[in-house]
Amino acid sequence: MTDQLWLVVGLGNPGPQYAGNRHNVGHMVLDVLAGRTGARFSTHRSRAAVAEARLGVLPGGVPGPRVVLAKPSTYMNTSGGPVAGLAQYFQVAPDHVLVVHDEVDIPFGDVRCKSGGGEGGHNGLRDITKSLGTRDYVRVRAGVGRPPGRMETADHVLRDFSGSERKELPFLLDDAADATEMILTEGLLAAQGRFHAPRDGR
Questions:
Q1: Which domain holds residue 189?
Q2: What does the record give as the reaction this protein catalyses (predicted)?
Q3: Which end of the chain has the lower number of beta carbons within 10 A, N or C?
Q4: What is the CATH number of the domain that holds 27?
């Protein structure tokens, strides 16, 4: 199990003007995962910043699976090319591709995990599905909440988190990073059992 490579992708848009947007929460989670492992990102020819590491710990203290952490350097709606290119380069099957992304249909601060299914109007996922030729990849969905009032969804996800949300953002990023590690070390069902359960407190 530890020798089966995973491709873990965090979605977002390139450039400092987008760095704090809700749409870039996938990039933020990847930065947390890289920080936990001491891995450093470098530019890859597949139009992405990548870092290789092992994530999590298996029973008995065995280091978790080998992973390629990747942040596509294209815009969100063209994420599929880099993801498919990396999957081909590193010879990773779609069922070992895990995509971390923002999700407006989940309340801010919540994390959900799934494999396959629809893209829910998410342009990054739609392009990945098209490029991989399948929906059967794993997703860690970081809730950013619905837009307030009559605000368009596109405007909502391309705005920075609010002041109150920024105070809670580290918890969301840690939970999404924990969910990613748990999927890789204990499986999707275990992660769903933990992160889909009603939460006490926050």
A1: 6-195
A2: an N-acyl-L-alpha-aminoacyl-tRNA + H2O = an N-acyl-L-amino acid + a tRNA + H(+)
A3: C
A4: 3.40.50.1470
